[in-house]
Structure formats: C-alpha cells, structure tokens
Design brief:
CATH superfamily of chain A: MetI-like
CATH architecture of chain A: Orthogonal Bundle
Number of helices of chain B: 14
Helix content of chain A: 55-70%
Strand content of chain A: under 5%
Shape of chain A: elongated
Order of helices and strands of chain B: HHHHHHHHHHHHHH
CATH topology of the largest domain in chain B: MetI-like fold
CATH class of chain A: Mainly Alpha
CATH topology of chain A: MetI-like fold
Number of domains of chain A: 1
Oligomer: heterodimer
Order of helices and strands of chain A: HHHHHHHHHHH
Distance between the termini of chain A: 49 Å
Structural class of chain A: mainly alpha
Largest sheet of chain A: none
Structural class of chain B: mainly alpha
Chain lengths: ~300, ~325
C-alpha cells in the first residue's frame, strides 16, 4: 500500500484500513515477529560445560584410560594416591583410577537423570493436560493425589521406595520419574488450563481448525518455552536427588561408579587421605553440571519472559 | 479468617492421612514377606506364622493400617525388626542430635540470611545484590555434600577450626559448647538454607517494593530507610514467614545428607540404616515423623501467606 493513500484515509472520521488486493491473508502476521534468541556470555559458558559433560557421558567407555574397576597400579596398592602420570586425578579408596570412574560415572549420572526427567515429563504432561481438559471430578481426584505426593519431602519418598523394592538403576529412574512427575503435572495442568481458554485458541477453533492443528500450531508454541525451561530445572533437581540417594548408599550400588556414590566411598579421604581429590572431584562434577544447566535455563527463560528463573 | 484457617487445617489433616497411606502402602509393596526377611531362609513355617501373628501381619491391611496409625499417634510405633527394641526408644536415644542441629541452624541461619536477602532487595541490581544472587544460585544448584566438602576444606584444613567429623558426646553442654560441637554440620546447613532463603526473601521484599503504594511513598519524598522499615517490611512479614517455614521444611531433607556426611548418630542416619536393613517398622514410624514435621511446617507457611495477604483471604 502506498504512503500517500493511507495518509488521506487518516483524515476520515474513523480510520478504515485501506483495502488492497495485493495483500493476501496469508501474509498477515498473526503473531509478533520472533525476536532472535541469543545466548549471553554466561549462557555460552553453561552450554559449553553441559556439552562437555554430555560428550564425556556418551564417549565414556572409549576415552576412559582404565575400566571403572581396574587398578592403575596393581603392583603398588595404596589408597588415595596423589595425582601422577598414569592416574591424573589419583586413586580412590580401593586404589581405582578417579578419572576413569569420573568418566564412567558421568554416563550413569547424566543418563539416569535424563531418563528420569523424560519419564517424569511423559507421565506429568499426559496426566496434566488430560486433567486440564477432562471433567472437573476426574481433575479433582488426580490433583488431590498429586498434592499429597507434592507435600512429602522427595528424599523421604525415595527412601521408602528403595526400602521396599531395593535399589537398582531401573528402580532409581522410575522412582525419580514418578516423584518428579507430580511437579510436572502441576505445571502442565496450569499451562493447559491457561492456554485452552485463550482467545487465539478459541479463535482457531471457531475458524474450524482441527484439534491437532490447534495443539501443534497454537498451544505448543506457547507451552514449549515454559516446558523446556522447566525441563532444565527439573533435570537439576533430579541430578541432585539421584546423587543424594547414591551418597546415602541407597542409589547406584557399588562397584558401579556414580558421582554421588563416589563421594560417599571416598569420604575417608578427608580424614586420612593424602589427597582430597577423590571427594572433591565428583562433587565438583555434579555442581558444574547443575550450574551449567542453570545458566542455560536462565538465558532461555529470560528470553521467554523470565518468570521461571525465579522458581529455582 | 478463622474459617479459612480451619479449612486449611482440614486440608492438612487430609494430607496427613494421605501421607500415612502412601508410607504404609509404600512399605507394603515389599516383594517377599517381612517375617521371611527377618527370620531368614532357615525359618520353619510355624516360626514365620508365629512371627507374623506377633507383628499383626496376619490381619487384613486396613486393620494393620488403623492399628499402626493409632499406635503412631499414641506414641507406640512398634518394635524394630533389626534390633528388637521399641522404635520410640531408638528415637529417644538419638533425637537430641537432630533436634539441636536443626534448631541451632534455624536460630543462626534464618536471621542472617533474612538480613542478607532484605539488604539485597534494598539495592536491587547493585554489585552486592548481583554477587549475592550469583553465590546463592550456585549454592542452590550444588549438592549438600559439595557445600560440606568446601566448608570443611576452608574451615578445618584452611583455618584449622572444628573437625571434619562430629565426635564425642553432647552430655551437659551449654549453648556455645553445643554450637562448637556441631560447628561444621550447622555451618553447612546454614549455607544450604541460606541459598534458598536469600533468594526468596529478596523476592518477597522486592515484590512489595514494586507495589504502587511504595511508589507513592517514594514520590512524596519519604527517605529510603523509612520506606523499607515502615512501609515495605511490615507488609513483607507475611511472605517472609511463609518463606522461612518453607525453608525449615527443606532442613528436613538437608539434615539427612549432613548427618551421613559428618557421621554422627541422629534420626536421619537411623532411617538410612532402617532402609539398609529393610526394617520397615522403623521406616514407617520415622518416615511418618519426618513427613509430619514437613507437613506442619508447610501448613504454617500457608497460614502465614493467608494471614498476610488479603487477596488470598477473599478469593474472587
């Protein structure tokens, strides 16, 4: 449309948008243009840290200098050896190589946490959206049960389950998944309820769009960002939960390496050890991973409105 | 107001019942029989039957549940499977350590973190505020045992205070001696709750600071100190009490890791032992005790939120 034309129209009593044949409805923007997402410095830092640990986790068995239960110095057995060529982070309470165990532990810790969070999301989102669109009575029953689970300390629930069924990696994943599904449920239900009644969803339905179109084109773009940032936060909590259980001796069982259980095994190093690396290395590994995820989440949530960054 | 509190107490009661059901059923999904586990493979069928009768396992589930719940609230939590002692006796032997550590932490940690958080809210965006936010974010995202390790490295190995494990008895010690006795666990827990408390109390005060009546006060020229202490803080008390109660509830979780880390006997190590020996009577009793504390603190948090916010009291 030309400028002079619209200027003339402005002098009318009511502004009427000029009709122009060259503009088709397909070109009309139905949402504000997307701002380009850019990581800040801390965001990049977080991304690098997380990518580093994920790479280590995936390539673990290939890059580890020793097997997770091999002794680097079978001829000179001594606990808590200081770092030296052949064992760059020293050895642990039974003289195994810390670096190798850290690398194997990365795969286990990250793998368990990721699978558990994914499980929590599958359960939570299905039940949450289901509760949001189902009838109020079903919604109330599910929500009340969920509230009861939410009102318990997570570690206590973990203890009860582990006491009942014993500890193994599948049990750990399912336990963490079910416990954290309660939090995801609440978020998904709230998001579902909020978005379902929004004008643009109603407009789309009135327009005659199918349910699938409404879900993929209207609901998902609006729910994706909050859900993705929440996935990051949940991942942090699941990592801490699984590590704490392992630290208490109730998670990943020895001789399998896992960051939480490594701290527990080597706790004696603080008292009698010549090297404190056996305790500090796995603890720092956990902290760098969780802080890295947190930095990414902060950036993403700042981009998508910044409400979620306050929730940690 | 009163009816709201009664309603909230009612919901709390339902939660407690639901929680007790979860704990009771959770320990009932044991594959295999508790009597079998306790007596071992060699036990004869009569022995197992007799043992089951003694524990009341031959009764239907709902009777077991009711008698357990009644026992719990009348102070009879049954007999430990692992040590054959009454649970109440086991708890009595150990509760002091846990109680002292958590209450001393609350006494020291809460005022300091509140002061830090409110101070940060007074100067949002300042260097101090950003520094504090950075530290507390990293603390929230790191496991309790890393915090403990770093503190041990700094205080025990760096400066030479305290001890990396808690040793000795607490018999007849005064307040300051108790604090010295539990110095490292208390400091660790203080850092753990401070990380949440600083963020949340800062957010609570900032929330009030952003309201229109504060803007009005600023515009009419009230000095900053007076705005904070006379206008903002009084309205922030409710949210802050809410935040404090929530964080004391976090202590319930934190204390488990800390007790194991510093290796002193308390209720949390007792329940971990219970899990390792599959002593389900102990887990039921102690688990219920921990969850009850947690639920009560959450209840206080909710009521504080109601009491402070008129909008929650009169929902649309």
């Amino acid at each position: 449309m030309s400028k002079s034309k619209s200027k003339n129209k402005l002098t009318q009593e009511h502004f009427v948008a000029p009709y122009d044949d060259s503009v088709s409805f397909d070109e009309l923007p139905d949402a504000p243009p997307r701002s380009k997402f850019r990581f800040s410095f801390t965001g990049w830092l977080g991304l690098i840290i997380v990518c580093f640990w994920v790479t280590v986790a995936i390539t673990g068995p290939f890059i580890a200098p020793y097997g997770e239960n091999d002794l680097p110095f079978p001829d000179a057995y001594s606990e808590f050896q200081v770092p030296q060529p052949g064992a760059w982070l020293g050895t642990d309470v039974t003289d195994r190589d810390i670096l190798s165990r850290l690398i194997y532990g990365a795969g286990r810790t990250i793998g368990i946490a990721f699978l558990a969070t994914t499980l929590a999301y599958i359960i939570g989102v299905i039940l949450g959206i289901g509760a949001a669109i189902s009838n109020p009575k079903v919604d109330m029953v599910i929500s009340r049960i969920n509230d009861a689970i939410l009102s318990l300390p997570t570690i206590m629930l973990g203890l009860v389950v582990v006491a009942a069924i014993g500890s193994s990696i599948p049990v750990l994943i399912c336990t963490a998944g079910v416990i954290y599904a309660s939090v995801v449920f609440r978020l998904a239900r709230a998001l579902g309820q909020e978005i379902m009644v929004m004008d643009f969803v109603e407009a789309a339905r009135v327009r005659g769009e199918g349910l699938w179109w409404v879900i993929t084109k209207e609901i998902w773009p609006n729910a994706a960002m909050p859900l993705m940032t929440d996935f990051g936060l949940r991942l942090i909590y699941v990592i801490l939960f699984v590590s704490s259980l392992s630290f208490l001796g109730l998670g990943v069982q020895p001789p399998q390496a896992d960051w939480g259980s490594m701290v527990r095994e080597n706790l004696g190093a603080l008292q009698y050890g010549t090297s404190i690396i056996p305790v500090i290395a796995p603890a720092i590994a956990i902290a760098t991973l969780t802080v890295g995820i947190n930095l990414i989440v902060d950036d993403v949530s700042a981009y998508s409105g910044g409400k979620l960054s306050k929730r940690l | 107001m009163l009816s709201l509190i009664i309603k909230r107490l009612g919901i709390g009661l339902i939660t407690v019942i639901a929680v007790s059901l979860i704990i009771f059923l959770g320990t009932k999904i044991l594959p295999g029989d508790a009597a079998q586990i306790r007596l071992g493979q060699q036990a004869t069928a009569e022995n197992i039957a007799a043992f089951r009768a003694r524990l009341g396992l031959d009764q239907p589930y709902y009777m077991q549940y009711l008698s357990w719940l009644f026992g719990f609230f009348t102070g009879d939590m049954g007999t430990s499977l692992a040590s054959d002692k009454p649970i109440t006796e086991l708890i009595y032997d150990r509760y002091e350590n846990t109680l002292y550590v958590s209450s001393l932490t609350a006494l020291i940690g809460v005022p300091i973190s509140l002061a830090l958080g409110i101070f940060a809210a007074m100067f949002p965006g300042s260097l101090y505020d950003r520094f504090l936010t950075m530290i507390s974010v990293s603390l929230v995202a790191s496991p309790e045992f890393l915090t403990a390790t770093i503190l041990v490295l700094i205080f025990v190995f760096g400066i030479g205070w305290g001890n990396a494990v808690v040793v000795g008895s607490i018999e007849g010690k005064g307040f300051f001696e108790l604090y010295r006795h539990f110095a490292m666990p208390i400091t660790t827990l203080c850092f753990v709750i401070a990380s949440q408390l600083i963020r949340m109390s800062r957010a609570a005060v900032l929330n009030v600071m952003n309201s229109p009546y504060i803007e009005m006060a600023i515009l009419k020229g009230v000095p900053r100190k007076r705005i904070i202490f006379r206008h903002a803080l009084l309205n922030a008390i409710g949210p802050i009490v809410n935040v404090v109660a929530l964080n004391l509830a976090y202590l319930v979780t934190g204390v488990i890791v800390v007790e194991v880390y510093f290796g002193y006997p308390g209720l949390a190590t007792l329940i971990v032992q219970g899990v390792q020996t599959r002593d389900f009577v102990l887990i039921q009793g102690l688990g219920m005790l921990f969850c009850l504390t947690y639920v009560i603190l959450m209840l206080i948090a909710d009521i504080a939120a109601f009491a402070s916010n008129a909008r929650l009291r009169h929902p649309k």
